[in-house]
Amino acid sequence: MAKTLNKVDVVTVGVGWAGGIIGAECAKAGMKVLGLERGKKRGTEDFLLVHDEYRYAIRYDLMQDLSKETVTFRNTRKQRALPMRQMGSFLLGEGLGGSGTHWNGMTYRFLPYDFQIKTETEKKYGKNKLPPEYLIQDWGITYDELEPYFDKFEKTAGLSGDDKNPFGGKRSSGYPTPPMKRTPILKKFETSTTKLGYHPFMVPSANLSEAYVNPDGESIAQCQYCGFCERFGCEYGAKTSPEITVVPTAMKTGNYDVQFHANVTEILKSGGKVTGVKYIDTQTGEEFIQPADVVVLTSYVLNNAKLLMVSKIGEQYNPDTGKGTLGKNYGYQIEPGTSGFFDEQMNVFMGAGALGMTIDDFNGDNFDHSKLDFIHGASITITQSGSRPILTNPIPPDVPVWGAEFKKSSIENYSRTLSVFGQGASMPHKENFMSLDSSYKDVYGVPLLQLTYNFTEQDRNLHDYINKRTAEIMKDMGAKTVVPGSPITNYDIVPYQSTHNTGGTIMGANPDNSVVNNYLQHWDAENLFVVGAGNFAHNGGYNPTATVGALAYRAAEGIVKYRKSGGSLV
Q: Is the full-model pTM beyond 0.85?
């Protein structure tokens, strides 16, 4: 029998960026907050002098244990969904900081167009620009309404940037720290894109260009450009993450605590409210009930949706009828791009996760789509993130993939290869959704989440268009061999693409087309909030973290308001 614990004011499920922000803001407001984290405690001290590519980048030491819980996947409803047995397309973090520990640190704000995509698309191109099976909708909030929360997140993170993007939304202040170094590789991209008439700017980076103390008094160190960011924790405390910012801030209040190895299996509900959560101690197997006045789901996109489904909160989306919102609008991204092989050697082994330069000329609605067979677009970027030796074996297409010639070419081209890539937006489609699997369960007996997802015609058309733009840039950069990416066919869950999953718990202006309102308060339970990239009504041409952070700060404000007055916040 589950043991019932003492009630807290707020319980968060997951302690990454969203959970850390909610924890810090609510604790500062005087609430007693408990963060439930199914992974272990970890921090900067755990990563000192550990440049172990095999442990972290190959064996995924910071990631979710798929032998305990995974997802099942199929491209279409006609197929049988099967479990994902190893990490591939996306990398689910686990432990203090979540995916905010192993991220690269590229931290863009979504464009103003994104938040009102249906309204703006129809205004400019008419209601039939996309077929009706594409379920685009406005987010129930505008960029201008969200801007103060973007600003707050950026100051908490100390972001480094140059504020030179002419297509970005209006800002209330500049970046807290200057941009990172404009290396020779980035200058090569800058020269070519400028020559082609585009507008390059430095990637907004959570790898800081200089030491910084944020408004909460947390110190973030200066990046050392060691090249071990993606899939790694930072040994210097220079890659902004929850465990060096918002979590310490929450702890200092005396109102916050974290329970590690706590895997939540159910949200408990009575009438129109939730009463707490049930969790299992993954070390002892004991089961606990944690009562709370407010429950906030702040785990990863997929788990937030799964918990609502197993707890029977909200109506499951049905692709046949179009009814229901839970699991609807699952989105991912496309990643067109071009490799270039050069004569000269370059310092590719040094870098940082978000050391890069990008253009937004083909992102959002920053270019005319009147004669194009897709909407939205992609940021186009070059990064110098550090080419590590195990995963980096670049060879031209005419070289065998094994043997002496492969080895010689791989060594020759290791420091002579660059990539220009796009992060392409994903528009929601009626056949792309999340649900519970009817056959497979996790180690705790809870059904696995099932993903039904495939690339659409919109995705393929956008991919082809951006591929051509990246090839043009690479050619102008002077590559002796230019290799554009292959056209996309069916989505495959195995090769890595990006950990930028979105949708399933989308936000909106009314309960007919969304799971939560614009404070991320659940329509069916006023003391339940759901925070994360699952709130995105579609995916954009960027990394999602800054938008998640902004939404988390707004949700925290909503929770404070709710504790004072109760009821719906909109």
A: yes
Q: Is the dihedral of CA 247, 251, 256, 259 positive or negative?
A: positive
Contact 249/28 with Cβ under 8 angstroms? yes
The answer to whether residue 513 scores a pLDDT higher than 90 is yes
pLDDT exceeds cutoff 80 at 487? yes
Number of H helices, E strands in the chain: 12, 20
pLDDT digits (tens, 9 = 90+) for 8-35: 999 999 999 999 999 999 999 999 999 9
With a pLDDT cut of 90, the percent of the chain lying above it is 96
pLDDT digits (tens, 9 = 90+) for 281-335: 999 999 999 999 999 999 999 999 999 999 999 999 999 999 999 999 999 999 9
Residues 6+ away with beta carbon under 8 Å from 551? 146, 149, 507, 520, 531, 532, 535
Q: Residue 289: which residues within 8 A CB-CB, separation 6 or more?
A: 2, 3, 4, 5, 268, 276, 277, 278
CATH class of 3-565: alpha beta
- Tell me if residue 500 is catalytic: yes
pLDDT, mean over the chain: 96
**pLDDT tens-digit map of 388-413:** 888 898 999 999 999 999 999 999 99
Of 109, 115, 136, 123, nearest to 374 by C-alpha is: 136
Q: How far apart are CA 418 and CA 474, in angstroms?
A: 9
Q: What is the DSSP string of 187-211?
A: HHHHHHHHHTT---EEPPBSB-SS-
Q: How far apart are CA 62 and CA 55, in angstroms?
A: 9
Q: How far is residue 498 from each of residues 81, 275, 357, 539, measured CA to CA in Å?
A: 21, 35, 18, 12
For residue 403 the two structure tokens come to: 């043997």
Helix (H) or strand (E) holding 292: strand 287-297
Reply yes or no on whether the pLDDT at 111 is more than 80.
yes
DSSP lists the bridge partners of residue 381 as 358, 421
Catalytic residue among 376, 429, 463, 500: 500
Q: How far apart are CA 37 and CA 262, in angstroms?
A: 5
3-state secondary structure of 417: strand
